[in-house]
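Backbone shapes recur. Consider a single case.
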Amino acid sequence: MRKHLLLLALLAAWSGAFYPHHTNAAGIDSIDVVVVIYAENRSFDNLFGLFPGANGLQNLTPADYTQQDRDGSVLKELPPIWGGLTAKGMIPQVTQEQTAHLPNKPFAIDDPNGLNTPASVITNDPGHGFFENQLQINGGKNDRFVAYTDVGALVMGYYDGSKLPLWNIAKRYTLADNFFMAAFGGSFLNHFWLVCACTPYYPNADRSPARNMISVVDADGVTPKIAANSPKSALDGQPIFVKYRSLTPDFYAVDWMQPPYQPSAIKPAPGGDPAYANPRAPVILPPQTQQTIGDLLSAKGISWVWFAGAWQVTLDRKDVKPAPYFQYHHQPFNYFAALAPGTAARAEHLKDGGLDGGEFIRAIDNGRLPQVTFYKPQGNLNKHAGYADVVTGDQHIADVIAHLEKSPQWPRMLVIVTYDENGGFWDHVAPPKGDRWGPGTRIPAIIVSPFAKKGFVDHTQYDTTSILRFITKRFALPMLPGLRTRDEALAANGSQPMGDLTNALDFSQ
């Protein structure tokens, strides 16, 4: 053991030569490497609702979970899972009919006496848009998740997380049980908030190819206009909206839009630059110019990289089987002009994570992670319902953590494992009232580090921007405008500012 510790110390000293901002001071400066692992689409209650000591499902009363219909009346039961439990295109494991008449309360998806569907099965994918999430939260009551979803009862489902690999990692380190997704809605917007605490904008959208992508909402600016043929009750079917699209009426992009650069779901224009997507496609977001955390890090000479699983094979458009299900809108830096194709910044900061994270893991094992590292697993490893199961992604992230713990950089490392958003799944904790964009529903976050409090449940109020706050504090960066705006909005609504993750750490260890 003594030899092993000595070797780690020597390797850490060797790797410290690559970090000009390294200091030996006690406290936050003890951390030289920050790693963010960004998974997909799970609420806290969906995976960690049964975690000992956490604010979970153990002591809830009917007032905490009873779901209302769209007219505000209490639902006598949950609607069926529309289309059945299993993802579209897969062999049905539980049919829609088998999910009828579930009681109006949370239920275990993997209960052997219930739906008996283990976390290794890919389920249907709940809708989880910007406007939907706000309607579901319903001012903090969280009682209209069933009313405003396209999958009926499924949103109230959860798993026995004690059977999953990350549960054991959370038991060894720190689990944050008061951590919220930064923005309402889906992956697209929350990835932006992870890197810039900002909402993308489409100038002059009403006179652009995206003019039909503008949503029609009621006067409150939050409720998409309900169509005349929409079912009156959630028991009869999902809501139908007049025009629910990606842009707000004032041209902010809040839901699924595609990057202007490859890799993108939109191919290049005929005869156009092959490194670009066709700019005439309605779903292409123009290049963004807001300041990102990457800009701030670069300005101070601090190394950083976004590792994307399956990035290169997707760029090469190779046919990989089984498919990695690469998600183009999960790559936020690919939307920014500062990282356009051909720039030195792009070559330096946007890296291939490799199939199954192979290139990322190689950088870990070689002790060559930059000071700030983001890792986005490829689609089938990110736990997103509809195309990924929970177990496979959970095991992948646990394996990555095992490599990090053996890395020569480990002694001075902080790892944050969290999720971009809740994926439409219910959670019982009311998000604090912030600004127009969020925060949204509560999600899991695990803080892994030699300095993390061991076996600790951290009740501090956090959201995705807390990651940016930690990076800002550690490297003495200017504060992104969105962080200040969020805290001002929280204060105006009688809430405290977001934490910066340091409450999860103990530097006396």
Q: What stands out?
A: The first helix runs from residue 2 to 15. The radius of gyration is 22 Å. Confidence is low (pLDDT under 50) at residues 1-25.
